[in-house]
Design a protein that fits this description.
With 336 residues, this protein is an all-alpha fold. It contains 17 helices and four strands. It has helices spanning 14-34, 40-46, 48-51, 57-65, 76-98, 109-113, 115-134, 138-160, 168-195, 199-226, 229-232, 238-242, 247-259, 262-271, 278-289, 292-311, 319-334; strands spanning 2-4, 9-11, 102-103, 106-107. The strands form two sheets. The protein has a two-stranded antiparallel sheet. A two-stranded antiparallel sheet has the order 3-4. A hairpin with a 2-residue loop joins strand 3 (102-103) and strand 4. Helix 1 (14-34) crosses helix 4 (57-65) and helix 9 packs antiparallel against helix 13 (247-259). It is globular and about 60 Å long. The relative contact order is 0.11.
Length: 336
C-alpha cells in the first residue's frame, strides 16, 4: 500500500500505483513545459503556482478514470494537463477578485506582481490549455468549452447573487456546481473518454466528478473557517473577510432569519461589518467555529460525498473503483 496524490490517498495495487505515479509525473512535466515562454518573466509568473505544488486532484481523478479503459492511451496525460492548467488559471483570477495575499502557502501572484500581471498570467494559462486541447480533437474541445462556460457562469452567478425569491443556499449550490463541479466532472470524463471506456462508464465518472466536486468545495468552505493556514495553504477566513458567501455563513443567515436568536443576529451583524479589522475578523472566526452552522455544513459535505460514492455502484469492482471510493472519504476527512 503506497500513498499517492492528494490527502494521502492509498493505492493497494502495484500496477495501479505505477500507472498513477507515472501519469502524475508526466502531468507535472507537462505543466512545466506548457508554462514556459520565450519571455523569462512570463515563465516565472506562469510557473509560480505550478511550483508551489498543490493537490493535483483533477489529474489524479483523470488517471483513475482512465483505468476503466486503456490507462496508457496517449491522450490521458495531455487532458489532465488541460484541466489542471485551466484550474490554475482560475486561481490567478480568483485571487485578484478576492484580493487574496496567500495561495498554496506562498504569496499570491497579485500580491507579488499586482492585479494586472495576475489577470494576464491567468489568460496566458488559458491560452496554453487551449493549445494542448487542440491536439485532442474536436470532441475534447467541445467538452472543455462547455465545462468552461459552466465554470464562468458559476462565477458570474456568484457575483450577481440569488435571483428574486431564490433560496440563497440553493443559489450557492448552483454556483458551486458550475465553479468547481464542472471542471472536476471533466477530469473524470476526459480520463474515461481518452482511455476508450464505454460511454456508460464515461457518464458515471462524469456524474461522480460533479458530485465529488461539490463536496470538495463545501469541504473548502469548512476549512476556510475551521482550519489554520498550515492545513489549507491560505489565510484562514479569506472568504469571510472578503464577504464571499460560503455554505456555513449562508446556513447561519438562514437560521438567524428563521429563528431570530439574538446570538445569531449579533453574529450576522458582525459579519456584515468591517472584517478588515483583525480583531473583528478573529472574533467572527471564533464564533463561527463554535456555531451549529459549521457542523451542518460538514454534514452537507458528507451528503454530497456519499452521493458521489453511490454513483460508482454500477462500475465493476477493481482497485481503481476502490481508490475513487477512498477519494470520497478523503474529501469528507478534509472537512473534519
Amino acid at each position: 500500500m503506497t500513498v499517492v496524490g492528494p490527502f494521502g490517498l492509498s493505492v493497494r495495487d502495484q500496477a495501479l500505483e505505477a500507472d498513477v505515479q507515472t501519469g502524475l509525473a508526466a502531468v507535472e512535466a507537462g505543466l512545466l513545459e506548457a508554462t514556459k515562454s520565450d519571455v523569462p518573466f512570463i515563465t516565472e509568473a506562469a510557473q509560480h503556482l505550478v511550483q508551489a505544488g498543490g493537490k493535483r486532484f483533477r489529474p489524479l481523478l483523470a488517471m483513475l478514470a482512465a483505468q476503466f479503459g486503456d490507462p496508457h492511451a496517449p491522450g490521458i496525460v495531455p487532458c489532465a494537463v488541460v484541466v489542471e492548467l485551466t484550474h490554475l488559471a482560475t486561481l490567478y483570477h480568483d485571487d485578484v477578485m478576492d484580493e487574496a495575499d496567500v495561495r498554496r502557502g506562498v504569496a499570491s501572484a497579485n500580491a507579488r506582481w499586482g492585479n494586472s500581471v495576475a489577470v494576464l498570467t491567468g489568460d496566458f494559462l488559458f491560452a496554453r490549455a487551449s493549445q494542448v486541447l487542440a491536439d485532442l480533437g474536436p470532441e475534447a474541445v467541445r467538452v472543455q468549452a462547455e465545462a468552461f462556460e459552466r465554470l464562468v457562469t458559476g462565477q458570474i452567478l456568484e457575483t450577481a447573487g440569488p435571483r428574486d425569491g431564490q433560496d440563497p443556499v440553493d443559489h450557492y449550490l448552483e454556483v458551486v456546481g458550475g465553479k468547481t463541479g464542472s471542471l472536476i466532472a471533466v477530469s473524470g470524463r476526459f480520463g474515461a473518454m481518452m482511455s476508450g471506456a464505454d460511454e456508460s462508464v464515461v457518464d458515471i465518472l462524469t456524474q461522480y466528478g460533479e458530485r465529488l466536486g461539490v463536496a470538495f468545495q463545501l469541504a473548502d468552505d469548512v476549512l476556510d473557517i475551521a482550519s489554520d493556514s498550515h492545513e489549507s495553504g491560505k489565510t484562514p477566513g479569506t472568504d469571510l473577510r472578503e464577504g464571499v458567501p460560503t455554505l456555513p455563513v449562508l446556513l447561519l443567515r438562514a437560521q438567524a432569519e428563521t429563528h431570530g436568536r439574538r446570538s445569531d443576529l449579533e453574529l450576522v451583524e458582525l459579519l456584515d461589518g468591517d472584517l478588515a479589522d483583525d480583531a473583528r475578523h478573529a472574533e467572527a472566526l471564533r464564533l463561527l467555529r463554535a456555531h451549529p452552522a459549521l457542523e451542518q455544513a460538514r454534514r452537507d459535505t458528507v451528503r454530497y460525498a456519499e452521493s458521489a460514492r453511490e454513483t460508482l455502484s454500477p462500475l465493476p469492482e477493481c482497485y481503481a473503483k476502490s481508490a475513487l471510493v477512498e477519494l470520497c472519504d478523503a474529501v469528507v476527512h478534509r472537512a473534519g
